Amino acid sequence: MACLPQELLLKRRAEILHALCSGGSVEHLERVIDMLLAQGELGWEDCQNVLVPGRALYSNARQLLDLVYTKGADSCELFFNAVKQVLPEALGDAFFLSGCHSTLDYKEKPQRTSTEELLTQRPDLVLKLQGCIDGALRVLVESGHFSSTDCDGIQLPIYTPSQQARRLLDHVRSKGESASLVVLQYVQQSLESESSLEQTNPKFVKYQKKLRSSVSAQSRFLSTYGGTSHMPLDDIYTEVQMELPNNSADNYKSMGFEEIIGPVGSVNDDADTVLASGEAGSGKSTWLQRLHLLWSQGKALQDFLLLFPFSCRRLNSEQRDLSVQELLFQHCCWPDRGQEEIFQFILDHPHLVLFTFDGLDELKQSFADEHRICCPSQRAPVDVLLFNLIQGSLMKGVRKVVTSRPEAVGPALKKHLHKEIHLKGFSLSGIDCFVRKHHSDPNEAAKVLESLQANTALLGLCHSPVLCWIVSQCHKELLGCGEGSLQTITDVYLMILQHFFQHHSTVKSAMGVNWLQENLGTVLHLGQLAFEGISNSSYIFSVTDMETCGVTESDICMGFLIQSKDMSLANSKCYEFLHITLQCFLAALFAILSRNTGCSAISKLFELQEMKKKRLRGTCFGACLNSTNIPNIVKEHSTMAETPNLQITATFVSGLLSQRYQKLWVQCSSSVLVEKKTKQAEKCLSKGMQQHFRSIPQPVQGEKKSMHAMPEFVWLIKCIYEMQNSRLAKDAMSKLEAEHLKLTYCNIGPVECTALAYVLQHLKNPVGIQLDNNSVGDVGVEQLLPCMHICNSLYLRNNNITDEGIHKLIDKVIHLQNFQKIALFNNRLTDACTKHFSYLLKTRQNFLSLRLGNNNITAEGAKQLAEGLKFNRSLQYLGLWGNKIGNEGAEALANALQNSESIVWLSLVGNGVGSAGACAMSNIIRNSTSLEELWLTENCITRTGVESLTQALKHNHHVKSVCLAIPLQQQAN
Ligand code: ADP
C-alpha cells in the first residue's frame, strides 16, 4: 500500500536519524541540507535553525526532520530524494519503493543571476571546490573580492574540506554577484583541465582532491604559534639557507623544491631519496611543511599527482604490521571508493607520486638495510616498510623526501641517497625578513632588529629559526631586559619560559622575582614528562603519561604542549612539546630542580658518546632516576635522536647551573643539592675536555702538534660557554698543548664561534685554528674576535664569509702581532675586501700568508693588493687561484713583487691571465731573490708568455718550479 511521505517520515524517523548521524560526522546532514537549499525547499534562516553550532548532531537532525515534516508532503519527498543521493545504500531500496517517488527532479527555475546559480548548484560546487579551495581563494583575492582575513577564516583547520567549501560559498554569496561569477568561472575552468583525467579515472581524481585538501589543511598553519593564534605558514615562511655538499658553487643559495628534487647535485642517479638534514630547530619540519603546502596549492611539484606526507614521530606509535597500501591509506588519506584501483594507479605511475618522511632521526629504530621486502602487499613493521621505501626495494621510482638530524645519517643510509642537502637556518637577511614578517607593527620589528644588531651573540643565535621565533615571540621581554644581557641559548629559553607564564598569569602585571617559584608545580610536572620522554625517546604523550607525571589541565594551558594528531591514538588526545628543544629545556630544568634526580643523572647526561655506547648495552639513562614516583624506563632500542637530545639537555643543564642563575633556584630546590649538581657538571666537563686532550697523538717529527676535534669537543665547549664559567675554561685550556686545532666539518656556525672564542681565549700559547668547511659567516667571524690574540693562523675555507666579515676581522688583527696567516678559499669575497688586506700588508711586517682563492676578486682587487704588497717585506705565500684578475691584475702584482725578498709561493691559477701577465711575472722570476714556486696553470698564456718566463728562468737560481699547463691549441699558436 502506498504510504504518504509525511507518514513515512514519522514511521522511519529513528532509522533516518541513525543513517544520518551514526557515523558521528555532520557531513551527511550538511549534504542533505545543501540539496534542500539548492531546490529552494529550505531558506538560509531554516539552515541556521537546523545547524546550531555546539548542539548535538542528533538534535540538529531531529530539527531538520521536524522542519520538513511541517513543510508538507513535497518537502518530505524532496528530503527522501536527497537522503537517497547522499546515502544510497543506507536505508535500502524497500524504503523508497514503499510509496515515495525517489525520482523527483529539482524544481526547474529560470536562472538569472550567478548568485542564484551558486545556490542551485550548491551540492555540486561543494564537491568540486573541496579539492581546489586554495585556487578558488586565490582568484577571489586576486579579483579583489576577498581579503586574506576572509581566506584565513574559511581555511581554519577545524573545518573539513567540504565545510571549507560551504563557508567559501556562503561568504561569496555575501559579497554579491561578481564574486559569485568569479567562483563559477574558476570551477568551470578547473573542471575543463581535469576532465581528461576524470574521464579515464574519476575515482582517482576524487581521491587526489581529497588528499590535496587534507595536505592543505595539515600544512596551512605553523604549530609553534600554538592553538590560539593561528599563524598561516604563507605569512611567516622565510627562506632558509641550503648547502649542497660537493657543490660549492651553489652553497647557501636557497633552492626551489623542483631544483631540490631534480637532478642538480645528484650523487646517485639510481636512488629516489632526497635527504634534507639539519640540527634541531634549523627549520626542517617547517621546510617540509612548506613543500606540502605549495604542492597542495598547486604552486610547486605539480608533476607529482599524489603526495603522501608522513611524520616519523607519529609512525612510532604504529604497532601493527602494515602493507604499503595500508600505510598510505590509513596514515595519510583514506579513499572513499576504489581503493584497489587507486593503489594500482600508484603502482603503475610511481614517477607521479611523492612520499615525505619528516624526522627520520626520531624513528625508534635506526636505519637498517638488512630486512628486504619488495612486494607492496606484504605486511611488515612500519620501520621495515620505511627503510625499504627509502632504499627503493619497495615502490621503486616513487620520489621520497626525508628530513633528519645529521647524527642519524650513517653510511648505510647515505648509499641510498639521490642527494643530500643541508639546511643551515636563516641568513642575516633571512633574520631581518622573519622579524619583519612576525611583527605586523613595523616599529616593533625595527626595535627588535636594532636590539639584535646591538647584541651579536644573540644575533648569532637567531640564525637558528627556532631561536629567531622565540626572540621575536618574546620581543617585549627582549626590549625590556637591557642590552647585551641575553648571551646564551639558556638565557633565551628562560625568557620564553617566563613569557609563557606571564602570558597566562591572571595578574597581568610584571611578574615578581619569584616567578619560577610561583609556577614550580607546572615546571616540575612538565619537566618530568619531558625528562622521561628524552630518556625514553618519547615525543608524543598520552593522557596516561601526563597523569603519571601529574600534568594538569592548567599545566597544559600554559602553551608548552600542543595537541598531536597521532593516528594510532585516534580516539584519545595526545600531546607533544611545541618543539623538541623546548622538551630538552624542560627536561634540564627537571634534572636540576627535582629532588628526586641526583648527581648521577647529571653525570650520565655528560657522558661522552663512546662511553655511553658501551654503557647502553647494559643499562639506560632512565634508570638513574632514584625516585619511586618515576618509573625506571628500560629501553630496548636506542633511537637515533637520543644522543643529540641528551646533549642538548646537557647544554641547558650547564646553562641553568651557571652562577648567574643560582639565586633563581634558592626558593625552588635544595641549595645543597643544586650546589652538588653544579660541582658534578663542572667535573664532567673538565673530565670530558681532558679526555679529548689525551687523545691528541704525539706529533710526527718536524710537524706541529695538532688536535683534530672529535664531534663532542664542540659540544663540551658550548656547555662551558653556557655555564659562563671562565675558571673552567681557563683550567681546561691550561692543559691543552696542541699548536694547531683542526675543527673542519664540525658544523660550526656563529653560536659555536661565540663559545669557541669564550674558551680558546684562555689558551697559553698561540695556535693555528682551522675552521674550514663550516658555516662561520660574518657573524661568526665577529664572534671569533675575542680569541684572535691567541691565533697565529686562521683557516676559514668555505665558510660563507663576505667583505663585511673581513673588514671586522682585519680591524682587530691588524694590532695582533701573533696573527700571521689567513686562508679564505671559496668564500664570497670581492674587490671590496682587498683594501683591508692591503692595509694589513702595509701595516704588518711579519705577516706571512694570504690565500684568497676561489672568490670574486678582479683586476681592481689585485691592484689594491699590489698597493699593500709594495710596502710589505714579509709575505711569503700569496694565493689567488680561481679569481678574475686578468693581465692587468697580474701586471700590478708583478710590479709590486718584482723585487720581493720574501715571497716564496705565488698562485695565479685560473685567473684569465694571458701572455702580457706572464711577461710581467717574468720580472718577479728575474728579480726576486726569494720566489720558489709560481703557479700559472689554467690561464691563457701563449708562446710569447712562455718564452718570456723561460728566458727569465735562465737568470734565476731560486725558483724551483713554474707550473704552466698550456692547452695544445694555444701551443700551436
Ligand atoms: P626542525 O624540524 O629543524 O627542528 P622546525 O621546522 O620545527 O625545526 O622549526 C622550529 C620553529 O622555527 C618553527 O616552528 C617555526 O616557528 C620556526 N621556523 C623554522 N623554519 C622557519 C621558516 N623557514 N620560516 C619561518 N619560521 C620558521
From TrEMBL:
One of its GO terms (biological process) is regulation of apoptotic process. CDD domains: CARD_NOD2_2_CARD15. It comes from Xiphophorus maculatus (Southern platyfish). Belongs to the NOD1-NOD2 family. Residues 272-408 form the NACHT domain. Keywords: ATP-binding, Cell membrane, Cytoplasm, Immunity, Innate immunity, Leucine-rich repeat, Lipoprotein, Membrane, Nucleotide-binding, Palmitate, Repeat, Ubl conjugation. One of its GO terms (cellular component) is basolateral plasma membrane. The keyword Transmembrane does not apply. PROSITE patterns: CARD, NACHT. It is a lipid-anchor. It is found in: Basolateral cell membrane; Cell membrane; Cytoplasm. The keyword Ubl conjugation applies. One of its GO terms (molecular function) is ATP binding. Residues 1-85, 110-190 form the CARD domain. It comes from the Eukaryota. This is Nucleotide-binding oligomerization domain containing 2.
